[in-house]
Amino acid sequence: MDTDTDTATDTGSWHLTHDLDDFLTRAGAFLRSRPALHTVPLTVTENLRTRGRSVYGQGAPEFGALERGGEVRAAFFRTPPHWLNVTALTPEDADALAARLAALGRSLPGVNAESGTAAAFAAAWQRHTGATAALRQQQRLYRLGTLTAPGPVPPGRPRVAVESDRERLGRWHDEFGEAVGGGTVRDPAEWVQARIDSGSITFWETPDGTPVAMAGTSPRVAGQVRVTTVYTPPRFRGRGYAGAATAEVSRAALAAGADEVLLFTDLANPTSNGLYQRIGYRPVADFEVYDFVAESEGA
Question: What does pLDDT average to over the chain?
Fold first, then answer.
């Protein structure tokens, strides 16, 4: 069944669907109303729309919109086998969603949301399924204020990745994934092709033409662009290359008309948090990622 709507209650009703167009018709305006906080669902749904429904995996993506009083108040998406991603919820709404998904027999590996919502949903999922929830990562969402080039800028120059960089991009994609852990990830070959097609990865290269770091950007949706996939191989770290690449893609996003330039950091990494703040990024909100282990798996 492509769609499934709960009976309305005092907390509203969740409209569940596998139909991306139906979801965007219902929830698109809500997502665009707060583009910074909704940067991940905006970006993911745009990639699903433009690159295909299997871009994040072979499982059918699932979407949901919480409707109350004729308006959408919250939304979620999931691209199996990845975590549930949900916008801000009250504890009561988090409990209702967990109960609904549990009753449908959904199996969730975890949840990614603003900190209060993630904690409330994780607790509710434990209550309704018996699963164990473990905090995996604490993240901070930043928004660019006044861009300031990191100083001193290392020798070299930025360069957009092209077809001849395919092998390096694939290798660095895999190394980046290993460094940061799981998340909403894509097939490496598809990711590389999309980045080459869109010109959305920039290398910082040394004066002799050796790429030493990369930074990317997401597609512009609702005026927002997110800096992604900032990576420096271990042998090149500590020389300012990642900061230079990040500053360049941030500058390019602004020059191309972005209203907001955003990025996420792992709060366990003080180096990157300090770097981005020196470039001009300012905190917006904190997010948390929880892993779920089903009762039978933990036995």
Answer: 93
